[in-house]
Specification:
The complex is a heterodimer of chains A (419) and B (609). Chain A is built from 16 helices and three strands. Chain A is mainly alpha-helical and 419 residues long. The two termini of chain A are 27 Å apart. Chain B is α+β, with helices and mostly antiparallel strands. Chain B is built from 22 helices and 23 strands. In chain B, strands 2, 3, 4, 5, 10, 18 and 19 form a seven-stranded mixed β-sheet that branches. A five-stranded antiparallel β-sheet of chain B has the order 12-11-23-22-21. A three-stranded antiparallel β-sheet of chain B has the order 1-8-9. In chain B, helix 10 packs antiparallel against helix 21, helix 13 runs antiparallel to helix 20 and helix 14 packs parallel to helix 20. Chain B starts with 8 loop residues before the first helix and ends in a 10-residue tail after the last helix. The chains are: A mainly alpha (419), B alpha+beta (609).
C-alpha cells in the first residue's frame, strides 16, 4: 500500500509559497513603508487584501487536490465555454478599470475574467491535444489549437486589455510547438514577431534578421516556396513597421513604441518613457545587495507607477538588489523546470499539455514583465505571476498550478490506456 | 503518417526556458552590476533632496553684554512647478492672502528657474500661514516650506552704518564667492561689521537629506539622516559699543545730517558710532522691493553714506590743538611765547582775518586755543613747510584710512607740496596753504580720524587703534578668535607739550567757545570748529572733546553738516553724550541741552539749491 501523498510535490508548493511571500514583502514595502501616510487609503490596504487573496488561493489549492483527474478532463470543454461566455459578458456588463472592460463584479469582489480565461483555455487546449488523432493529424490540430487560443484573445482585445490578450497570442506558438507542428513552420510563425521587435529597436537589425531567417528556412527545407514565405513574412513585417512608424501611426503612438529603446531621451522621460526611466532607475540603483527592505528611495517615494502591480519587480530590484532579483529568477526557473518535469512524469498527454500550457503562460508573463521592468520591452501591462498585487491574476496563476499538482498527485488514476 | 511524440521536444523547450531566464539575468546584471552607478545617481537625483540648513548667524552684544542683534525664524513657501496642480491656484492664493494672479506669476518665475526644484515663492510668511498650507498638503502637491533665519534687532539705536546689514547674496557676488560655499538664497553681510566679520558670523551651513516622493513632498529623512551634516552656528561679536549711549547719541541727531564717534582713549574702544541719516537695518529683514529700495537711496540725504568714516571735510578750529602741538614740539613756540594779534594776518596784500575781525592783542598758545585766535595759527603755519605739515598730519593719523572694523572709508586729504604742484600747476604761494593753519583750505578729515586724534591728545600722544569689536567668541565651544589689533602708535610729541595743549583745551571749556557746553561737575577739554561747507550752504558744525580732564574715559568728535557754529549743535551733542556715558544719567542742565539740541536741524539740502 503506497501512502497517498507519495506524489505530492511539496517542493513546488514551497516554491509557490516563497514566490507569493516575496510578492507580499514587496507589496508591504510599497504600501506600508515609512512614507505610506502620503498614500491613498485604498492603496494602503492593498497588502491586507493581497494577503487575504493568498489565503483564499491556499484553500483553493487544497480543494483542487481533492478533485479527481477525470473531473479536469471532463470539465475542460465546459470550462472553456464558460470562459468565453464570461468574456462576452464582461464586454456587455463588465466594469471598466484602467480603460479595460475585463472585470465582472461577483458580490463583494471584482474578478478580471481575462486573467481567469487562461485556465479554461489551457484546459481546453490540453484536452484537444491529448486526443489520439492529434498525434497523427498535426497540422489540422495545430490549426484548432491556434483557434482555441486566439478566440478568447480576440475577445480580450475587444475589452481593450491588450497586455493580457498578448499573452494569449504569445501562447499560440508555444502550444503549437507542443502540438507537433513541424519546427520550421513554427519558425515561420514566430519570425515576424522577432522581425517586428528588431525593426522597432533598430531597423537594419530587422532587415538582417529577415535575410538570415530566410536563408535558414531555405537551407532547412530546400524549398523556394518556404523561403519565399519566410522572406515575405519577415521583410514584410520590417517594411510594415518602418511604414507604420514614419507614415501611418500618430506621433504619440510612435513615441509609445519607440520610447522603450531610449526612455531617458528628453522628449520621452516625462511622458511615455516615465515608467521605464523610473523602473530602470529603481532596479539599477539597487546594485548588488539592494537598498534594504523599505529603504528604496524610488519605492518609498512612489516614483515607479504601478509598483505594487505590474512593476513589482522594480521594488525587488531596488530593495533587494541583484541578489534578490536572481533569487526570484531562480525560484521561477526551479518552478518552471519542475513543472515540466511533473508533466513528463504523468505519462499522459493531458497532464503534459497542462504542464506545457502552464509553463508557457508563466514564461510569457515572466519574460514580458521583467523585460518591461528592465527596459527590454515596451510597457505591456501584465502582472508578474504570484508577486504582483491583484487577486484575479494570483487566483488564475495558482489555479493552473493547483490543477497541475492535483493531476500529478493522482497521476495513477489516469487510464493506462490513455486516450 | 508517423505518430507524433512530444517527448523529444522537451529538451528544446527546457533550453528555451533557460535561455529566456538567462537573458533576463544578463539584463539585470547589466543594470544592477555594470551600470548601477549611473542609475544610483538617477534615483538619487529623483528622490533625495538636499536641504540646506542655515546656521544661526553669530549674534552681537554690546560692551555690557546687552544683546543687540540676534536671529528669528522665518518661513518661506516654496513651489515646485512640476508637481503643482494648477487647479489649486485659488486655494493657495487664499491661504497666503494674495490675488490668484500673484500665484500664477510666482509659478511662472519658479518654472523659469527650474520645474523640478523648489523655488522660494512667498518669503517671510507667518507660522500661521505655513500651518494652514500644511493642513492642505494633500491638495497642494509641490508646495513646501523652508525655515530660515533673519536678523532681529533688539536695541533702540540703529547703528545702521556700524552694523551694516544682511541681505540675500546678489548674483554677481555669488559668482565671486562660490568657492566659499555660497549658494543662491544665502544671506551675506553687505556693509559694516556684518560684512567685515562675515566669515565669523556666518557659521557653517548644514545639510539635511530628505526623501522626496513623486509629488515633490518630503516624506522622511534619507537613510535616517545618516548623511546629514549639522550646521555650525557663527561666532558672536562682543562689541565695545555701549548700546544705551548709542541710542541716546542717535536720538540727538534728529533732523540732522552728521556723525559722532566716541572712543575710550586708553583702549581705542569705540563707545558710540553714529552716522545720520541712516537706514534702519530692520527693513532688510523684511522684503524690500526695488521701488522701496530706490526710494530709500535716491534721496539727497544719501542714507547709505557712512558719514562717520567716509565724509571728508576741513576740520576748522578743531585743528588748532594739532598746530599748537606741532609748533611746541618743533620749538617754533613755547608755552609763554607771546604773539600780538591785530585781528588778522597780513600776507603780501591779503589779510587773513580773525572771526569777525576780533583783535586778541598779545596772546600765548593756551589763550590762542581758548579764544580760537586765527592770526596766532596763521603765523605758526607761515613757519611750517607744507611737507612738514603733511608729515605731522600723517603722524596724527590723517590722510590715510584707519585700520578699522568698517571697511567703507575715505582717506581724507592731507596735502603736501606734490599735491599743490599737481592741483595748481601754474604755481602756488604760501597764500594757498596758510589756511591749513586754521583747519581750512585743501584738507579733509573724517569724524573717525578726528575722534582718534582727540583720544590721542587725551592720552598724551599714545594713539590706540580704534576698534568696535572687543572679542569674537563661539557660544557653544567657547572658542575665542584672536583679534590681532593694530599696535599702539606713540605720537613723537613730548608729554609736557601735550599738557600745555590739553590745558588750552580745558580753558576752551571753561572760558572759551565751549563754556556753554561744559559737563556739569566734570572737567573736560574740547575745541569747537566751524568748517566752510561747499556751495552756498551753512558751515559744518564741529566739536571735539575728552572727559574727565584728568583721567579721560571718553573722547568724541561730532560733526553736523550745515549746522552752523561748532558751539551751537556739535558741542551740546558731544557733551550730552559724554555726560550720560560718564554718569549714566543727565543733570537738569544736561536734559535741557538734550531737549534744545533735538530742536535744531541741519540746514535742509533743498534750501540752498
Amino acid at each position: 500500500m503506497r501512502i497517498w501523498y507519495r506524489n505530492l510535490s511539496i517542493d513546488v508548493i514551497i516554491t509557490w509559497v516563497a514566490l507569493v511571500g516575496v510578492g507580499l514583502v514587496a507589496i508591504y514595502s510599497t504600501t506600508n513603508g515609512p512614507a505610506s501616510e502620503y498614500l491613498l487609503e485604498s492603496v494602503r490596504s492593498n497588502f491586507m487584501r493581497q494577503f487575504v487573496w493568498a489565503l483564499i488561493c491556499t484553500s483553493g489549492l487544497i480543494f483542487a487536490m481533492l478533485l479527481p483527474v477525470r473531473f479536469y478532463q471532463t470539465a475542460a470543454w465546459p470550462v472553456y465555454v464558460i470562459t468565453l461566455i464570461l468574456l462576452i459578458a464582461a464586454l456587455l456588463i463588465g466594469v471598466e478599470i484602467n480603460g479595460a472592460r475585463s472585470w465582472i463584479r461577483f458580490g463583494p469582489v471584482q474578478l478580471q475574467v481575462s486573467e481567469l480565461a487562461k485556465v479554461g483555455t489551457i484546459l481546453a487546449v490540453a484536452q484537444l491535444l491529448s486526443a489520439k488523432r492529434a498525434r497523427i493529424d498535426t497540422v489540422r490540430y495545430a490549426f484548432l489549437t491556434a483557434l482555441i487560443i486566439t478566440l478568447p484573445g480576440i475577445l480580450i482585445v475587444l475589452q481593450n486589455d491588450t497586455g493580457t490578450a498578448l499573452v494569449f497570442f504569445a501562447l499560440v506558438p508555444i502550444m503549437l510547438f507542443w502540438s507537433g507542428l513541424p519546427l520550421i513552420n513554427l519558425v515561420l510563425i514566430v519570425s515576424p514577431a522577432v522581425a517586428g521587435y528588431l525593426s522597432i529597436v533598430y531597423l537594419p537589425a530587422g532587415l538582417i534578421f529577415a535575410i538570415v531567417i530566410t536563408g535558414f528556412v531555405y537551407f532547412q527545407t530546400r524549398e523556394y516556396s518556404m523561403a519565399a514565405l519566410s522572406a515575405l513574412l519577415t521583410a514584410g513585417t520590417t517594411l510594415v513597421v518602418s511604414l507604420a512608424l514614419s507614415k501611418v501611426l500618430q506621433p504619440h503612438q510612435v513615441a509609445r513604441l519607440l520610447s522603450f529603446t531610449n526612455p531617458e531621451a528628453e522628449e520621452f522621460r516625462d511622458n511615455v518613457g516615465f515608467h521605464l526611466v523610473q523602473s530602470k532607475a529603481a532596479i539599477g540603483s539597487g546594485g548588488l545587495t539592494g537598498k534594504g527592505f523599505m529603504e528604496g528611495t524610488q519605492t518609498q517615494g512612489a516614483y515607479v507607477p504601478e509598483q505594487s502591480t505590474d512593476f513589482v519587480f522594480s521594488v525587488i530590484g531596488e530593495e533587494f538588489g541583484f541578489i534578490g532579483s536572481i533569487v526570484v529568477l531562480a525560484l521561477f526557473t526551479y518552478l518552471l523546470l519542475r513543472l515540466i518535469n511533473l508533466g513528463v512524469q504523468m505519462k499522459h498527454p493531458f497532464g503534459l499539455m497542462v504542464a506545457a500550457g502552464t509553463v508557457g503562460v508563466y514564461l510569457i508573463h515572466i519574460f514580458v514583465n521583467i523585460g518591461m521592468a528592465t527596459g527590454l520591452l515596451p510597457v505591456i501591462g501584465i502582472p508578474l505571476p504570484f508577486l504582483s498585487y491583484g487577486g484575479s491574476a494570483l487566483l488564475a496563476h495558482t489555479a493552473m498550478l493547483a490543477i497541475l499538482l492535483s493531476l500529478h498527485l493522482k497521476k495513477d488514476e489516469f487510464s493506462i490506456y490513455g486516450y | 503518417m508517423s505518430l507524433y511524440d512530444p517527448k523529444p521536444r522537451l529538451k528544446l523547450f527546457v533550453v528555451i526556458v533557460l535561455a529566456t531566464i538567462t537573458g533576463l539575468g544578463m539584463r539585470l546584471a547589466k543594470l544592477q552590476l555594470i551600470d548601477t552607478k549611473e542609475y544610483t545617481g538617477e534615483s538619487r537625483n529623483n528622490a533625495v533632496r538636499e536641504k540646506r540648513v542655515t546656521p544661526a548667524r553669530g549674534v552681537i552684544y554690546d560692551r555690557n553684554g546687552i544683546l543687540m542683534v540676534d536671529n528669528e525664524p522665518t518661513y518661506t513657501i516654496m513651489l515646485t512647478p512640476r508637481y503643482f496642480d494648477e487647479d489649486q491656484i485659488p486655494l493657495l492664493a487664499s491661504l497666503v492672502n494674495v490675488e490668484d494672479s500673484v500665484v500664477v506669476q510666482k509659478l511662472a518665475e519658479a518654472r523659469d528657474w527650474s520645474p523640478f526644484q523648489p523655488s522660494a515663492a512667498f518669503a517671510n510668511v507667518t507660522l500661521d500661514i505655513v500651518s494652514r498650507v500644511e493642513e492642505n498638503r494633500y491638495l497642494l502637491p509641490g508646495v513646501t516650506y523652508e525655515t530660515t533665519q533673519r536678523r532681529r534687532y533688539l536695541t533702540d539705536g540703529h547703528l545702521g552704518h556700524g552694523l551694516g546689514y544682511v541681505r540675500e547674496i546678489s548674483r554677481s557676488e555669488l559668482e565671486r564667492r562660490r568657492a566659499d560655499g555660497y549658494r543662491p538664497g544665502d544671506l551675506i553681510g553687505i556693509a559694516g561689521l556684518e560684512k567685515m566679520y562675515e566669515p565669523y558670523l556666518r557659521g557653517e551651513t548644514g545639510s539635511e537629506f530628505k526623501l522626496v516622493n513623486i509629488h515633490g513632498r518630503e516624506v522622511k529623512p534619507y537613510r535616517d539622516g545618516e548623511e546629514d551634516q549639522h550646521p555650525v552656528s557663527g561666532y558672536d561679536l562682543h562689541l565695545t559699543l555701549d548700546s544705551d549711549v548709542q541710542a541716546l547719541a542717535e536720538s540727538l541727531f534728529v533732523g540732522k545730517r552728521g556723525s559722532l564717534v566716541a572712543i575710550e582713549p586708553a583702549s581705542g574702544e569705540i563707545l558710540a558710532f553714529v552716522s545720520k541719516p541712516d537706514i534702519d537695518p530692520r527693513i532688510f529683514s523684511g522684503r524690500v522691493t526695488g521701488e522701496e529700495w530706490s526710494a530709500l537711496i535716491n534721496t539727497p540725504e544719501d542714507p547709505l553714506f557712512n558719514r562717520a568714516t567716509m565724509s571728508g571735510f576741513p576740520p576748522g578750529s578743531t585743528w588748532k590743538p594739532f598746530m599748537a602741538l606741532v609748533g611746541l614740539q618743533k620749538g617754533l613756540i613755547t608755552e609763554n611765547t607771546v604773539y600780538r594779534c591785530r585781528g588778522g594776518y597780513r600776507l603780501g596784500n591779503r589779510v587773513f582775518k580773525d572771526h569777525n575781525g576780533k583783535v586778541h592783542g598779545p596772546i600765548t598758545v593756551k589763550r590762542a586755543l581758548q579764544e580760537s585766535c586765527n592770526s596766532f595759527f596763521f603765523n605758526l603755519m607761515m613757519q611750517l613747510d607744507v611737507d612738514e605739515f603733511h608729515k605731522w598730519g600723517t603722524t596724527f593719523g590723517f590722510g590715510n584710512t584707519v585700520d578699522f572694523d568698517i571697511a567703507e572709508q575715505d582717506a581724507g586729504l592731507m596735502p603736501d607740496s606734490a599735491y599743490y604742484n599737481r592741483v595748481y600747476p601754474r604755481g602756488w604761494t604760501a597764500g594757498y596753504s596758510i589756511n591749513l593753519g586754521i583747519g581750512q583750505g585743501d584738507m579733509l578729515v573724517t569724524p573717525l580720524q578726528l575722534a582718534r586724534y582727540t583720544a590721542a591728545i587725551a592720552n598724551y600722544g599714545n594713539m590706540k587703534a580704534p576698534h568696535m569689536v572687543r572679542s569674537i567668541q563661539h557660544s557653544e565651544t567657547g572658542e575665542i578668535v584672536d583679534l590681532d589689533l593694530p599696535a599702539d602708535h606713540q605720537i613723537p610729541v613730548e608729554r609736557s607739550n601735550f599738557e600745555i595743549v590739553r590745558e588750552g583745551m580745558k580753558m576752551v571749556m571753561e572760558h572759551g567757545s565751549g563754556r556753554w557746553a561744559q559737563i556739569p561737575n566734570i572737567d573736560s577739554g574740547g575745541k569747537t570748529g566751524t568748517a566752510q561747507a561747499p556751495g552756498d550752504r551753512d558751515d559744518h558744525s564741529l566739536f571735539v572733546m575728552f572727559a574727565p580732564f584728568d583721567d579721560p574715559k571718553i573722547a568724541l568728535a561730532v560733526m553736523v553738516e550745515n549746522g552752523g557754529f561748532g558751539a551751537t549743535q556739535a558741542a551740546p551733542i558731544a557733551t550730552v553724550v559724554a555726560e550720560y556715558y560718564l554718569t549714566r544719567t543727565l543733570t537738569p542742565t544736561g536734559k535741557w541741552r538734550k531737549d534744545q539740541v533735538m530742536t535744531l536741524e541741519s540746514q535742509p539740502l533743498e534750501e540752498s539749491q
